[in-house]
Design a protein that fits this description.
Layout: H1 3-15, E1 29-30, E2 33-34, H2 35-58
Antiparallel strand pairs: 1-2
Length: 63
Amino acid sequence: MTPLRYTLLNLLVLSLTAPWPFVAGSGQTLAGWPLWAVYAVVASTVYACFVAWSLKHYWNHWE
């Protein structure tokens, strides 16, 4: 994967961490948490795993 492609993929995954689908606010909850908060926590965890994997995989790849 090229650095440009990695950067674009990183920005795409990062943009998915914002709770865009919950702009209107439905008021629903899951275990006492608003759905947008659950989405944000899960998406942030997925993003963190993506960054950890990509750093492990590509750390010395571009040198």
